[in-house]
Amino acid sequence: MELASELKERIDLILVSLIEHSRTGKPALIVSHYDADGIASAAIMAKVFSQLSTPFHIRIVTQLDEALINELANAFKNYELFVFLDMGSGEKELISKRCKDKKVIIIDHHELTKESPSNGCIVELNPREFGINGDNEISSSGLVYLIARHLDVKNVKLAPLAIVGALGDLQDRGEKSRLISLNLAIAREGMAHNLIKEEISLRIFGLRSRPLVECLAKTFDPYIPGLSGNKMACYKFLKNIGIEPEANGSLRMFSSLKKEEVRTLVTNLVKYMLEAGLSSKDAESIVGYVYYILNEDPSTPLYDAREYSALLNACGRMGKYGLGIVLCLGVRGSALNEAIEVWEEYRNRLAKYLRLIHSRDIVEEYRELYVIRGDIVGMEERISGAIASITSGIFSEPKVIVVLAKSEREGFLKVSLRLPEMLKGKVDLGSIVHAISTEVGGSGGGHKVAAGASIPINKREEFIERLRDTLAGELL
Ligand code: C5P
Q1: Measuring from atom 21 of ligand 1, which residue has the nearest CA?
Q2: 268 φ, ψ to 5°?
Q3: Would you state the torsion angle of the CA atoms of residues 422, 425, 431, 433, taken in this order, to the nearest 10 degrees?
Q4: pTM of the prediction?
Q5: For ligand 1, is residue 160 a contact (CB within 6 Å)?
Q6: Domain extents for the chain?
C-alpha cells in the first residue's frame, strides 16, 4: 500500500514515540470512543502495546469533554502516556493544558481544530491534516492499523478489524456501498492475504445462517420501515410478493430460493422501501458490496464485517465495552454468545422505540422539526443517536430530527439531532446546537449533519423554541 510521504513520516513518529515509551516499562492509558470504530481501534492499539510489552489500561467513553479531561488529569499520575483514539482532535487545547509533562498521542479522523497545542506534548495523527477525507477514506481503526502494520508486517492479520471499524462509521460511501481509498487499500491487503473476501450481495442480516423471515426482521441497516423488528410483517411481505416463507413445515432459508425468487425479493424490497419514503439511494443500498472475514465461522455474525461492526456497536450502545474489546481480541465461545444476546436486546429496544415513532405516539411535529420524545418513554442516552440516524431516513418531510432521551447526568436531557438528506448543505447543525445548548446552560456541538447536546431538563421548551427560530431564519 502506497502512503503519502508526510503521512508515513507521522506514522513513523508515533511508532518511535510508542517504542521509546515501551523502554520505560511504565503504563499507558488508551482512551477510546464507545462505537464500533472506537472499540476496534482500542483493540488494535492493545495488540500493539502487547507486542511492545507495554502495560496498559483501556477506558471506553461516550465522549471527550472538559469534565472527562479533568477527571483523566487526576489519573495522570498513574500513567506516563495517554493515547486518545477516535477522539481528541477537537480537544487539543484542553488536553495540552492538562497534560503538562506527559506524552499524549491522538489518533482521530474527526474535524481538526485550528489552534495548535500550547506545549509539545501531543503527537497527532489525523488524515485531514494530509488532505485525506476522514469521513470516508479512513477511520481511526484504519489509522491504528497502519501503525500496527508498520510495527510488524504480521499485523496485516488485523486488517479485518480495521475494516470493521470503518464500516461501523458508515465509510462505505463508494458505488454500491463499497469501501474507497485507504479503506479499500486495507481491505485489498486483507484480500491478498486471504483474510477478507469482497463480493456484491443482498445486504440482509444473517442470510447464510437464518430463515429468511428472521433475516428480514433482524435487518436494521438499512432500516426497513414496517419490516425491521417485525417478524409477522416479514412473513406477510414474503407471501404478498409470491415467495412462500415456509416449505415442508419449516421456515425457508435464503439459500433455498430459486434465482427468479431472489430477483422478485430484491425488486419488491426496493419498491417497498421507496414506497415507505426512503430515498432511492437508501432503498438501493439493500444490494451492495459485502466484506467477509474468512477466518471467522460463517455461521456467526462475525463472518460479515458489517454484522461484526453492528455487534460491536450494540455492545457499545448497551455499555458492554469490555465485551466488545474481548471479541476484537479474539475471544469467542461464551463471550460471543453474550454479545449476540446484547445485540438482540439492543435491537429489541430499537424496534420498540421505532414502533412508537412509526405510530407517531412520541412524535411532535413542527414546521422545521420532528421532535421525538424519547424522554417520556425512558429512552436511554446511548441509544438516542442511533434512533435519530434511522429516523432521519424514514420521515418524508425535510425537517430536522431532534431526539430527546433521558441523560445519565442528573437533571439533564440528552439530545441527538440529525439533518435529513434534503437539507444537507443548508445549515450547520453542529454550530447551531453548540450555540443554543450553551445559551440554555448545557453543552453540545458536533458535525454539520449530526449533532448532540446535554441540556437542563427545565430548558427543554426553550431549547426547542430557540432551535426553531434559528432554523426558520437559516432555512428561509
Ligand atoms: O450522540 P449523538 O450520536 O447524537 O452525537 C452526534 C455528534 O454530536 C457526536 O458525534 C458528537 O460530535 C456531538 N456531540 C457533542 N456534544 C454532546 C453530544 C454529542 O458535541 N453532548
Answers
A1: 453
A2: -70, -30
A3: 0
A4: 0.92
A5: no
A6: 5-172, 199-333, 360-475
pLDDT, tens digit, 9 for 90 and up, residues 247-295: 999 999 999 999 999 999 999 999 999 998 888 888 998 999 999 999 9
Q: Are strands 369-373 and 363-365 parallel, antiparallel or unpaired?
A: antiparallel
Q: How far is the CA of 223 from the centre of ligand 1 (A)?
A: 21
CA distance 471 to 476: 8
SS3 25: coil
Q: Is the CB of 450 under 6 A from ligand 1?
A: yes
Q: Report whether residue 442 contacts ligand 1, using a CB cutoff of 6 Å.
A: no
Residue 453 C-alpha from the chain's centroid: 18
404 lines ligand 1 (CB under 6 A): no
CATH of domain 5-172: 3.90.1640.30
> Is 63 touching ligand 1 by the criterion CB < 6 Å?
yes
| 412-418 vs 400-406, strand pairing mode | antiparallel
Fold classified for 360-475:
Diaminopimelate Epimerase; Chain A, domain 1 (3.10.310)
Whole-number Å distance, alpha carbon 453 to ligand 1 midpoint, is: 6
Q: Which three cell numbers stand for residue 37?
A: 470504530
Q: Which tens digit of pLDDT belongs to each residue from 68-115?
A: 888 888 877 889 999 999 999 988 888 988 877 789 999 999 988 766
Q: Is the dihedral of CA 272, 273, 278, 283 positive or negative?
A: negative
Return the C-alpha cell found at 468: 426553531
